[in-house]
Amino acid sequence: MSSANGNAALARALTLSRELLAAAESADTRSLALLDAERMRLLKSLRFERGSLSADDRLVLKQVAELNDRAIGLMEHHKRRKERAMDTAVVGRRAVAAYSSVRLQR
Predict the structure, then answer these.
(1) What pLDDT tens digit does each residue of the chain (106 aa) get?
(2) What's the helix, strand, coil split of the chain in %, to 5?
């Protein structure tokens, strides 16, 4: 792959990473999967050999990794929030079931 194609692929991967972070902020899992698949395809197509990266390329890859880490953190946060909501709903259903049987006995 030529350097120009590699730079364009890295730039596109960075753009996709920014879009992926925005999708993670809104918990848009469908977009996340599509963006991640496209970004992965681009990054795999680069097939850099050790030491063949320029300083600029390494900086772009570092930015991609940082954006990815932030997106993962956001999705973990969304997951925990959803789990808490589900746990709360279960507790609420149990409470309703417990009190409704007491109310009927009166």
Answers:
(1) 456 667 888 999 999 999 999 999 999 999 999 999 999 999 988 876 555 778 898 899 999 999 999 999 999 999 999 999 999 999 988 888 888 776 555 5
(2) 85, 0, 15
What is the reported pTM? 0.74
Q: Nearest to residue 7, comparing CAs of 55, 51, 40, 50?
A: 55
- Distance, in Å, from the CA atom of 20 to the CA atom of 2, rounded to the nearest integer, reads 26
- For the chain, the structural domain boundaries read 3-105
Closest CA to 64 of 43, 44, 89: 43
**For residue 8, how many C-alpha atoms fall within 13 Å in the half-sphere facing its CB?**
5
For residue 74, give the nearest of 37, 23, 9 by alpha carbon.
23
Residue 79, token pair as written in the block: 């997951």
Exposed/middle/buried for residue 15 (C-beta within 10 Å: 0-12, 13-18, 19+):
middle
**Residue 52 token pair:** 């063949």
Side-chain half-sphere of 21: how many Cα atoms within 13 Å?
13
